[in-house]
Structure formats: C-alpha cells, structure tokens
Amino acid sequence: MMEEVRRILLDGAPVEMVRRGDVLEAPDGRRIAPDDAVHLPPAVPTKIICAHLNYQNRIDELKTEGPPAPNYFFKPPSALTAHKGTVIRPRGCRFLNYEGEVAIVIGRATRNVGVASALDAVAGFTLANDFALHDFRHADRGSMLRVKGADTLAPVGPGLVRGWVPGDQVLRTTVNGTVVQESTLGGMVFSMSYLIADLSRMMTLLPGDMIFSGTPANSRPVEPGDVVTVECDGLGVLENRIAEGEHDILDEAGWMPESSDQALGVALGEQLRE
C-alpha cells in the first residue's frame, strides 16, 4: 500500500504530514491543504548522487555510446529546493536546462547490498529536477561541480512516497504546460536497484541520501518566468518557477560563464563534446 509523506513548514517548524485525500495531516491532528502548504524537501540527505546518461533515448540523442557501467556526479545538499520553490538562473547565464527524474531516497545505512535486495534499503521515492547550468560546461574538468551544484538546482518533491515500486511508469516534464520530456522508466539502461547496489559497494548510503536516477531525452534551456513540472505515475507533480539571479557573478576568482561550443552542444541536445 502506498503512502505519501510531505515535509511542511508549519507554524515555523518542519513537520512530516501524511497525505489523506485532499489534505495533509500531522501526527497531532493538524491539517492543511497541499496547495496552502509551504513545502520542504521530503528528506534531509548527507549526499545527492546523480546517474549520468541512464536513458537510452538520451544516449541516442547525444550521438554517444552508453557506458558499460553507471557514471555519477554529486550535487551538494545546498542545491536542494522544494516543490513550488524558485530555481535561480544566475545573471549572465543562458543555458539552464531542466532534467526531469525520479529520485531514490535511502531509508537505512546501506553498504554492499546486492541488486536483488537493494530496494529493501529504500525509504521511498520522490520526483527531482536535475537542473544543469551549461554555461560552466568548460569548468571543473568533467566533475560538473558548477554545472550541477549551484544553489536551487536540485528541486525535489512534493513528497516521499512509500510502497511505490518502479516499473514502466511514465515520467513526464512540462514547461508552461507543454510536454517537453516523456519516457517510461523502462527506458533506463541501469535499474534503480542496480544503481543502489553499485554505489553501496564503494560508500555507505545513509538515511535521507538521494540518488537521482537519470533523465530522458530532450533536456533544453528554460527562461526566467517559466514554470517547469515533473510528474510520474504515483509520485505526484513537482512544480518550480525559474527566476533570474539578483546579482552578477563576481569576476574576482574562478571560471566565468561562457557560451562555448560545448555548452551549446549539450544544452541544445547535439553531439556530446567531452
């Protein structure tokens, strides 16, 4: 049986509330409509690990070869934002791309788990949008720290769904109501169980840790004012609005944004140049 739990800021404090029909209910009986709630990320991770190129149609789109085993990158927890939160495109940048995904949330300390039992380590699943700032594609020698790690570039939510089993559900992303990505989860190259088992060979996954399981084809740039949603059967709808940053990126240290061939190629879905 599925159950959805949302973390809500209620009376100034985080509260876990269970969705019961059209209302959210706290353990002490307080209730609120989901549309009236101030959402928080549904878990508090120590790390966010993202699978790179894990949908065959994304691999095909970029005219590259899929990896023989998963590749990953990190997003810092400071990149998190919640359902209805604002995603910031820094001033001076052009290529902020959406990437709709399903996120795995770990429920217990997990090390060296096998593929067959990997889902036993899961607290639940949620939606994610693995935003990428491709203006920094030239930086960080492939780690994608600045591409993926800026504040607000990891919206997750709206809630944590327990008892949901990944299968062939439809994952869909929209921009201003228009469908821009759509695939079944069966389009993944490596299953969610495989990702958990693979990562747990090398590191301890802790409660609340998140694994973003990859995005399908047609990741494209968005503009300030756009409203982006991610939805998947059984997991609800994650919605975020794009806004421009209030300040210029300081040029006293480090790489600055560039409209390079590499940025254009990846942001617009052309051949991957790495």
TrEMBL record:
This is FAA hydrolase family protein. It comes from Geodermatophilus sabuli. SUPFAM superfamilies: FAH. It comes from the Bacteria. Residues 47-242 form the Fumarylacetoacetase-like C-terminal domain. One of its GO terms (molecular function) is metal ion binding. Keywords: Hydrolase, Metal-binding. The keyword Transmembrane does not apply.
